[in-house]
Amino acid sequence: MIQFRIQPDSEIPASTQLFNQIRFAIASRQYPPGYKLPSTRALAMQTGLHRNTISKVYRQLEEDGFVESLAGSGIYVRAQGHEGGSRLQSPILKKNPNAYQVVQQALDELLSQGCSLSQARELFLAEIDWRLRCSARVLVAVPSHDMGAGELMVYELERALKIPVQLVAMEELAAVLDQTTSATVVTSRYFIGDVEAIAAPKAVRVIPLDIYDYTKELNLLKILPKENCVGIVSLSSGIARAAEVILHGLRGDELLIMTSQPKDAYKLQAIVKRAEVIISDLASFAAVQAAVQTALEDIIRPPKLIKVENYIGTNSINLLKRELGLS
């Protein structure tokens, strides 16, 4: 069972701390679709929060589309995007909403038995045409206030898929989709609800990407000596903020947490000169190394550098490859 921790003297409201920690558990698949969230009573005992506060957090998670409440049963993580069975809304599907799911299951069964896509094409033309179009337009959509998260996804997707990937601000997504007849929109599970709301009327598929769970890095931070300084460097300001909340939950004020984006030279230099450990995403690692080299004459002991190889979970990459016909 995941242990949620609330830092009572933090400037971040307790409800926000819990909301971010649960959302991280969902986004990293520690709480997969269909998982039943702890009761408000159990979570109150674990965190020390009032049950009304926890109920408020659960309502917010439901309003944002992360969970769904089943009367008399509990709160469950909601299946989202592609995994939830969303498909092009043709008139046939409106009359028979399970039709596409039946088609896809049959196609996957044919493929598992050795049937090629070309052989199955005559039966499943719409689905297979989409899968075979490796040049299909792939869009990464994120809010404009955290374009760094999108840059990180584009960086990793282009390396993994070997095709161009376009970054689009969520606020501009509707206008972009108005100008295309086919596209695949991908986004972090953090943003899936808002992106689906924009893409659904456009008959465009949305696939949520699970994020890496950072277990190895978190286990290291759990055993760091008190009063150590930890630097977090990421293209995404949102990731940096989430990391700060989670680390406060783990260690309270025992560790000093400093965050920066690689383009912020002033903050990056401050981290390099002060931190004992610096954790960086793959796209930012070269900037961190360069900053360390620049500051070598001013520091007694260089910080330990930890490179996080992935932001997107491996299973999500494999799913996207399959959907694009690249696997």
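The above is record 1. Record 2 follows with the same two-line structure.
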Amino acid sequence: MSSQALRQDADRILEASLKAVDPYAAVAAALSLDGDRLRVGGRVWDLSAFDRVVAVGAGKAGAPMAQALEDVLGARLNAGRVVVKDGHTAPTRVVELMEASHPVPDQRGVAAGQRLAELLVKEAGPRTLVFCLLSGGGSALMVSPAPGISLADKQQTTRLLLACGADIGEINAIRKHLSQLKGGNLARLAHPSPVISLIVSDVVGDRLDVIASGPTVGDQSTWQEVVDILDRYRIREEIPASVRQRLEAGLRGEIPDTPKPGQKDLAGVTNLVVASNFQALVAAATQAKALGYTPLILSSSIEGETKDVARLHAALAQEVLRSGHPLPPPCCLISGGETTVNLGQEFGQGGRNQEFVLAAAADIAGLEGVLILSAGTDGTDGPTDAAGGYCDGTTIARGLARGLKAADHLARHDAYPFLAALKDLIITGPTRTNVMDVRFVLVGKR
């Protein structure tokens, strides 16, 4: 099969995977209203027991999630405030959408966090039902610095964490200990209102305490674990003094830890994951089969250094061609999760998905009938306008023909200009969902 034919098939598989995790459809499917009876997942709520229904939330999928909630509840939804990433808004009737910066927070995120807190304080009570709409990106978008921590302190800490190679669980553990809303604190603020949290998961294993830094979930991380993370990546002395002082005060027992699982003011929370990476992979497998490929889902929980994971996927493509294992061609190997890149002090332009395909390109150089795709389901890979990219057996040679050396671009984490020159970037625009990354290894007919 030609690379062009493989690319067209990969695009169709990607489209199917994104459609399967559409946040509007996911929320609409999770809710069902019949008179006063509201079914949420497997539980039924009697809306006649409540005088008010309000919504708060944060994340890249916030706009379509809010639209779905409005359409299901109609006039029963009384108010709402949700913060989304720039360019991720959509028309809403009741819910006020606020834009802020991602992945590094800005002053608009601080203002949005304050407005969310004000709404909860005003509305909270046993006869108010609170919906919380959470999705990937919520940690950076919903900002409420702890006392003594400035926005500039949080920005610098975020940049250091993003660059050092820490995974999302480690990053969010630190964020929770620097916030007044994350790590169960939003649910504590809403108490005694019952809270229904609808979640689009962007975290390996769908860990509720990590997604958007778990604003409605008891936090299992501790002051000691947070300091250990900083020491592990050797950035403890680089973070702002105010952050270091807060964490060290927490270690000494001078500041209470985040709310923990089982606490009374978290008892009224129902958390429901409505869309996940695995759903996207299942849809990709279904579409691949319809196109004539035998699909195999490897895992939705792949983490680790991007280049290492890329070489593993390239090795699988080689094995398929050499021995017909784990599947004979034509086949589509599918994986999901979220890898990490240790950027160091100097780096170029790109993201983990672009780095993934450029790293894989070297190991499949010269192979015919192989194409590898890696893309972020949110449509944004790193601080670029691309979701990810493709590579095939000709990628390295096509780069050299343009005077581009893949090894040099990889060394400085600069995959974007290399792939852009070859027209091998994937540009989807904002998808308004976020369930981590998807990767496809297509081996076509001989």
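The first strand starts at residue 31 and ends at 34.
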